[in-house]
Design goal:
Two copies of one chain form a homodimer.
Chain A (H helix, E strand, L loop, with lengths): L10 H12 L4 E3 L5 E4 L9 E8 L16 E7 L5 H11 L5 E6 L2 H16 L4 E6 L20 H13 L4 H14 E7 L19 E4 L10 E4 L3 H15 L7 E8 L5 H18 L2 E8 L9 E9 L1 H8 L2 E2 L4 E2 L1
Parallel strand pairs in A: 3-4, 3-5, 5-6, 10-11
Antiparallel strand pairs in A: 1-2, 2-4, 7-8, 7-12, 8-9, 10-12, 13-14
Chain lengths: ~325, ~325
């Protein structure tokens, strides 16, 4: 896997420089940090919505900073949690006087970071609430884990919480809808190829020429099942069975669907997957309200995709439809 | 290269089904064809902007159908020109009484198709104008070609012509700005890996483990130079020299920049490339007015990217800023 880069140790810094230059009307990077913030931060009178985590998942999370979504996204090294100092800088820069919501994917390092950042916020009299995203249905049966991982469903939490904050709701309300979104969202992914962390020689796992791995994490963590490559229909039907059965999503439920590419799978194939998802839901009597097909939460150049379903009520539908303008997602 | 699909011969049909279901408020596929049209077609009193070409370049072109861009995009089989019958269906469906502009990438099959479609339009008393997109600076020095290929710069032509049509300008004016855009846009691409047409066994070309090919076409046509992999800075500077020198883009010129992923290159690397593009332009005294970084005109799962520059005047800036809402590009 060839990479377009200069030095591996500079790739995140240069990526963030590129992102801030490309979208300078929307975002900037706080000097001396790897924190991406709204160019117009702080937005006074608004709850600040802050997330972060390792890099390598672009456009997550810096690509979702902007009006109607995030105020700040902390970017660590590839697949590593960001430093506390960047969190403090972002918190101070984005403090609009109404407190902050931290959206945290369920990984040990990220939890630790945001726990420390919460203490820093308390020292500064900034009220904080947290939500832990745990949408990956692949994990639960496995032992020795810290529970379900946060994966692509996190983007829906950004959207829902960001919309509520944009409407100038108080922190408790922003937290309430974010938690509702966490409780209503489920994801399952599949990998067709591994990825290589910049600067390393070897891929993060191995897959045979005709193999795929179901339930893999966004950092190449082991999945639930390694099988031979199957036709899209059979693959998607199996994945949908696990996702739909998990919440469970009931007949008559309205949902948002996200088919998310992992980095190297072309849009043509993602639409083929979406077509099978739509057919499955049609047979199951579940109604698609809104759809997202593309790259939202990637794993470097890993091939594969994830499917996310979000169960919607009237409140979530309205928040999902709320306009937003970020580098990676604009809705009118 | 593993593909997520059912049967290779169904991949385009199923991809289009998925696209129309995912974005049903914006687009639909005319039954019995592979023509993607605006869901609200025909828009009466508006020039219809129509393009088309082989599939495998998603989101081009169906992803750019919608308000402010295209009225119709004809999708052929992978890397093959679409059938005339689909063109006729799209022309009839999108005819708003003000004529049609055909945006054609410079490939023999596509030119032939749109020549025939122009005759069909004449039979129906629909006025037609055509623009031929020839933005690939790699080609000219080569013999035996039909001239410069149309590549990612085509997306800017869709945007500019679509905006002018959305403002209800007459056909002559829509054609004029489309031609101005063609005259002002230049692209150069590089491939780091080949791609495989669905159903075939072999990649469309071979590249060594440490090789890349500069100036490659979007169907894997030979490039201008095969070299070893270089650092991003050196690679981009070399490409920018060719692009900037070609128009030429002068000091003080305002430009739009597109860094376009070919299918398998992650967004992280595209932003690293953009960062080098921005530095190059800064040194050269060329000002970036607006930027696009992502996948716009791909080649299946090919790794690599292209850089496009569009020289802007006040009219093109205003048209570029005009709002649009399509599956792949929304601007507020």
């Amino acid at each position: 896997m060839k990479k377009v880069m200069n030095k591996p140790e500079d790739i995140v810094k240069e990526m963030l420089e590129g992102m801030s230059k490309a979208h300078r009307r929307l975002v900037e990077v706080i000097p001396g940090t790897q924190a991406v913030v709204r160019a117009d931060a702080p937005v006074m009178g608004k709850v600040a919505v802050i997330t972060g985590g390792g890099s390598g998942h672009e456009p997550a999370h810096g690509g979702f900073v902007g009006k109607g979504m995030l105020d700040a996204a902390l970017a660590g090294a590839v697949f590593c949690s960001p430093p506390l100092s960047d969190g403090i800088a972002a918190l101070e820069r984005c403090n609009g006087g109404k407190g902050a919501l931290f959206i945290i994917k369920n990984y040990t390092g990220d939890i630790l970071l945001f726990d420390m950042l919460e203490e820093e916020a308390q020292d500064r009299d900034i009220p904080v609430k947290k939500v832990l995203v745990t949408d990956d249905v692949a994990v639960e049966e496995r032992e020795g884990t810290t529970g379900r991982r946060g994966v692509a469903g996190t983007v829906f939490v950004h959207k829902i919480a960001g919309a509520m904050a944009d409407k100038r709701a108080p922190l408790e309300e922003v937290h309430r809808v974010a938690q509702k979104c966490v409780d209503s969202v489920r994801t399952l992914g599949v990998a067709l190829s591994p990825c290589i962390v910049p600067g390393r020689d070897k891929p993060n796992f191995e897959l045979g020429a005709d193999e795929m791995e179901l339930g893999i994490g966004i950092h190449g963590e082991p999945g639930v099942e390694r099988t031979s490559l199957r036709p899209a229909r059979e693959l998607v039907d199996g994945m949908m069975g696990r996702i739909v059965g998990d919440l469970p999503f009931e007949r008559g439920q309205e949902v948002a669907v996200m088919v998310n590419g992992m980095g190297a799978t072309p849009l043509m194939e993602l639409y083929v997957v979406f077509n099978e998802v739509a057919k499955y839901l049609d047979r199951t009597g579940i109604d698609i309200y809104r759809s997202y097909v593309g790259e939202y939460m990637t794993s470097l150049e890993m091939a594969g995709f994830s499917i996310t379903l979000l169960a919607l009520d009237e409140e979530l539908k309205s928040l999902l439809d709320h306009p937003c303008e970020t580098p990676a997602l604009t809705q009118r």
